[in-house]
Amino acid sequence: MNKKSLFSQLPSVEEILNNKKIMGLIEKYSRNLIVDTIRDCIDDVRKRIISLKDCEIDTFYIDYDKLIENIIKNLESVYSLSLKKVINATGVVIHTNLGRSLLSDSIKEDVWKIASRYTNLEYDLELGQRGSRYSHLEDIIKKLTGAESVLVVNNNAAAVLLVLSTLANGKEVIVSRGELVEIGGSFRIPKVMEQSGAILREVGTTNKTHIKDYEEEINENTALLLKVHTSNYRILGFTKTVDIDELSILGKKYNLPVVEDLGSGLFIDISRYGLKYEPTVIDSLKKGADIVTFSGDKILGGPQAGIIIGKKEYIEKMKKNQLTRALRVDKLTIAALEATFKLYLDENRAIKEVPTLRMLTFTADELSKKAEKLYNMIKNEKLDIDLNIEDGYSQVGGGSMPLENIKTKVITIIPKRISVSELERKLRLCENHIIARIYDNKYVIDVRTVFEDEFEIIVKELVNVLK
Ligand SMILES: *Cc1c(COP(=O)(O)O)cnc(C)c1O
After folding, report:
1. What would the pLDDT profile of 130-161 be if each residue is shown by its tens digit?
2. Does ligand 1 come within 6 angstroms of the Cβ of 261?
3. SS3 per-residue string spanning 34-54
4. Contacts of 247 (CB under 8 A, 6+ apart)
5. What is its main location (predicted)?
6. Ligand 1: centre distance to CA 351 (Å)
7. Which domain holds residue 389?
8. Secondary structure (3-state) at 293
9. How many angstroms is it from 64 CA to the middle of ligand 1?
């Protein structure tokens, strides 16, 4: 055998087109796409032959079935999406890498209807003329928070940029040194301020800032007082920060707007559900903030968005800023946001139907039941593994509540025939992409972030990988 005779054994495109399995695909894919794919796959075999070493030539043969299989696989992959559903078994509820908050199933029809049909997005039905896309959120935000006005942009980073660019361009903004945070590696408060044209005036020290530090820095060029909720880290020990109520009194005294970047947008006091107290949007406004900004897809549990609420006089100015056009959100975001806000009209409903809140408020009993169910399902398969239910900790994630480790139940697996990291890799790459942690040399599935309808899939994939 030599390479020349191997080349002569390569099937022609015509031959493969006459294969039964390939013929069956003509209805599904265009002829051109099929021919191109066949050509590419034959070419791959040709390249493989070219690269054969002399000693490999005699044992090499052209596996026709495998070639057909490859062609079909390549055809299927042309239409498969790169952005895919995964199973989050990490226990990190607001997992930025895995898409942050999940929208509620109960809003999907509302959102799809708006996405696939014409709407009154910027059309005032009463007047029969042009309207504002932000008007759709005004009534519901007023009802939920008491705020006079609302504006929504692409994300909270954009919200902070727009607020500063509108109210403080070329002027000074006073902020505590302890609040000059970086979030998610790319959002740095000092950098955003620079971009907006505002001049940063840092006051206090990293661990202590007093109200008199702010007051001493105020001058005729001061535009606003900013408070940033340090949502992804906390300074412990000898500390002093100025609360938004104290800052608001100072703002009124000097007629300066007070802005709070809250980060996560809580509408519900979650300390009622056993979590640590975090300031809510309503608290911030009640305590006197003139403008509050927060994310749509952190604890709020909505789509990615930056929500700016507060005094109408300031928000009207922001709407006129040219940047607003560049940062504007589309109808999908507005539809998902309005529908998510509506769930909050009834707190019990929000807790039950907003997945982020639901996952954060599972009771110990609910978590135990979930863990036992999955444990039993896996156990039934009699796999060659060590399987246990253990106590563990989940995280809120998304830079929210950094020190808050919430007790959970985890399933731990130690496979006997492959390594833990091999198991992790195979489950991550399998059709259903299960993302979990390895801890203490065990594969750890936190049931908090796994939906019950995903249990069967996990079992199926475990069987596939370990059989
Ligand atoms: C998360 C966060 C941001 C950035 O919000 P995005 O919606 O991710 O742009 C800004 N400020 C604070 C305090 C945050 O926690």
Report:
1. 999 999 999 999 999 999 999 999 999 999 99
2. yes
3. HHHHHHHHHHHHHHHHHCCCH
4. 211, 214, 225, 227, 258, 288
5. cytoplasm
6. 22
7. 87-96+359-466
8. strand
9. 54
Which CATH number covers residue 383?
3.90.1150.180
d(CA 33, CA 95): 38
Q: Is the CB of 231 under 6 A from ligand 1?
A: yes
Q: Is 157 in the pocket of ligand 1 (CB under 6 A)?
A: yes
Cα separation, 217 vs 424, in Å, equals: 54
Distance (Å, rounded) from C-alpha 384 to C-alpha 418?
Answer: 10
Residue 145 and residue 267 in one domain: yes
The C-alpha atoms of residue 361 and residue 348 are separated, in whole angstroms, by 11
List of residues 6+ apart from 365 with CB closer than 8 A: none
Cβ atoms of 464 and 378 closer than 8 Å: no
User: What 3-state DSSP class applies to 19?
Assistant: coil
- Say if residue 63 is in the same domain as residue 92: no
Phi, psi for residue 208 in degrees, rounded to 5? -135, 125
Atom index in ligand 1 nearest the CA of residue 187 equals 4
CA distance 332 to 303: 9
Question: For the chain, how many structural domains are there in total?
Answer: 3
pLDDT at 276: 85
Q: How far apart are the C-alpha atoms of 20 and 64, rounded to whole Å? A: 13
Residue 127 counted as domain residue: yes
Instruction: Looking at the structure, tell me whether residues 284 and 416 fall in a common domain.
Output: no
Predicted confidence band at 362 (pLDDT cuts at 50, 70, 90)?
Answer: very high
> 48 and 164: one domain?
no
pLDDT single digits (tens) 226-265: 999 886 666 667 778 889 999 999 999 999 999 999 998 8
Question: Could you tell me if residue 353 is inside a domain?
Answer: no
Q: Are both 313 and 209 inside the same structural domain?
A: yes
Q: Where does a domain end: 321, 346, 371?
A: 346
> Considering the chain, what is the average pLDDT of its residues?
93
